[in-house]
Amino acid sequence: MKSLFINTSSFFMSIAILEGNKILYKKEEEMLVDMASRIIPEIEIAFNNVDFEINDIDKIFVVNGPGSFTGVRVGVTVAKMIAWTLKKEIVPLSSLELLATTAIDESNVVAAIDARRGYVFAGVYDNHLNIIMPDKYLPLNELDDYLKDGKIVSYDNIDGAINPNIDIVKIVEKHMNDTPVNPHALKPNYLKLTEAEEKKRKLE
Question: What is the pTM of this model?
Answer without folding.
Answer: 0.92
